[in-house]
Design brief:
The complex is a heterodimer of chains A (291) and B (131). With 291 residues, chain A is α+β, with helices and mostly antiparallel strands. In chain A, 38% of the residues lie in helices and 11% in strands. Chain A is elongated and about 80 Å long. The termini of chain A are far apart. Chain B has a single domain, classed as Fumarate reductase/succinate dehydrogenase, transmembrane subunit (3 helical TM bundles of succinate and fumarate reductases). The longest helix of chain B is centred in the middle third of the chain and has 29 residues. The chains are: A alpha+beta (291), B mainly alpha (131). At the A-B interface, α6, α9 and α10 of A face α1 and α3 of B.
Chain lengths: 291, 131
């Protein structure tokens, strides 16, 4: 089922340490037995299940010789109503191949760590229902990012772009009283509401054709983050100008070509293109002088 | 974000079946834009035959219009121009922030409208071929 390289036993340790060696071997044996048990259990569950789902999962591991060639592994998983792609991946890892690597944490679309390329589109696995997908379900790591192992990609570039727009609240005008709150009026809050939903999953950046070809482009997520603070009235005029200086650069908002790919894939339904377009208009307004 | 090895069709246009409306609109807009720029040069070339006098211009145009291929190309040119105009209006709306939720529908609408206009133009373009 999986293309895991069979482990070869090597006995290089000195004979003098025979006792711990033996213990280690025993432990390994027990582990193997457990793995076999799990797989047998999975096979039984698979037979008992009314419905099974066929997953094709991208595999690649640069550190193991037999796995350096990218390939697809097939996993058959018993289907349960309400099962997500992440559930299926967890099942495959726990029952068939413990070396299957992917990021996940909260399983409820908040942590943003399990964005993957499922059936040709960037999706959050914990939010994607298996029942709604065509089989076999093809699971790949996010495109346009370096694959570290299996479904794990290097997110560093994405985080760098996010940091570039200073994604935190900053202002000169703090309130006078010691216990006074920095209130935002309802209307302004409503304006930035959607943009605050971003969970940094990187799906939009991966779907963006422009970001793929231009490494300096901020990308939809970073621009949306900038929008969230640019539109926040509490930051004040000076801060707004400072933020606009970042956004109006060549590789800022102007790279967007309104392909709507990001808006299409965003698991939190943020109207990314709309926000980028609004910032473009702000950029024009701040530069246009009629005298 | 280059890849240390070839991931095959993951990152190229081989995935065109999975493109959404906005992506298609972008591709078609680029394509029609380049076609129109290309046409601009032929257009100038044909028009500049009038430098040699009205007869030269007339014979050039009549010669071209008598060719069936040219008539077909003219229909193609109309299709390209109409789509570029309609999608340009759509992009203008997108830039103004009007109706971004309906951007896919407006793309389909511009496709359908282009089709209708092109089909309606066929009798005009194909009449009197070779006269």
């Amino acid at each position: 089922m999986s293309t895991q390289v069979p482990e070869t036993e090597t006995e290089t340790e000195a004979e003098t340490k025979s006792k711990p060696n033996q213990e280690r071997r025993m432990a390994e044996k027990a582990e193997r037995r457990e793995a076999a048990d799990r797989e047998r259990l999975a096979r039984e569950e698979l037979e008992a299940a009314d419905e099974t789902v066929h997953l094709k999962v991208f595999r690649y591991d640069p550190e193991v010789e037999g796995k350096q060639e990218p390939r697809f592994d097939d996993f058959h998983v018993p289907f349960e109503k309400g099962m997500t792609v992440l559930d299926a991946l967890i099942y495959a890892r726990d029952h068939y191949d413990s070396s299957l690597t992917f990021r996940h944490s909260c399983r409820q679309a908040i942590c943003g760590s399990d964005a993957m390329f499922v059936n040709g589109s960037q999706r959050l696995c914990c939010k994607t229902q298996l029942g709604e997908l065509e089989t076999p379900v093809r699971v790949e790591p996010l495109p346009h990012q370096e694959v570290v192992k299996d479904l794990v990609v290097d997110m560093q570039h994405f985080y760098d772009q996010m940091e570039a727009v200073e994604p935190y609240f900053q202002t000169d005008g703090t309130p006078n009283g010691e216990l006074e709150e920095q209130r935002q009026d309802r209307k302004n809050r409503e304006k930035i509401k959607m943009s605050t939903r971003c969970i940094w999953c990187g799906a939009c950046m991966s779907s963006c054709n422009i970001a793929a070809g231009d490494n300096e482009y901020l990308g939809p997520a970073a621009i949306n983050k900038a929008y969230r603070f640019y539109m926040d009235e509490r930051e004040g005029k000076d801060m707004q100008e400072h933020r606009m200086r970042v956004l109006e650069q060549e590789h800022g908002v102007w790279r967007c070509q309104t392909q709507f790919s990001c808006t299409e894939v965003c698991p939190k339904d943020i109207p990314l293109t709309e926000h980028i377009q609004e910032l473009k208009r702000e950029a024009v307004k701040s530069n246009l002088k009629f005298w | 974000m280059s890849q240390s090895y070839n991931r095959g069709r993951v990152e190229d246009f081989g995935r065109w079946r999975e493109f959404s409306a906005g992506m298609w609109a972008w591709i078609f807009h680029k394509f029609t834009g380049w076609v129109l720029i290309g046409y601009l040069f032929t257009h100038i070339a044909v028009l500049s035959s009038s430098i040699q006098g009205p007869e030269a211009y007339n014979t050039t145009l009549q010669g071209l219009e008598s060719l069936f291929v040219v008539r077909i190309l003219e229909i193609g040119l109309l299709a390209v121009a109409v789509f570029h105009i309609l999608n340009g209006i759509r992009l203008l709306m997108v830039d103004l922030g009007v109706g971004l939720e309906a951007q896919d529908k407006s793309f389909y609408a511009s496709m359908v409208l282009t089709g209708i206009i092109v089909v309606a133009s066929v009798p005009t373009f194909l009449s009197e071929v070779g006269v």
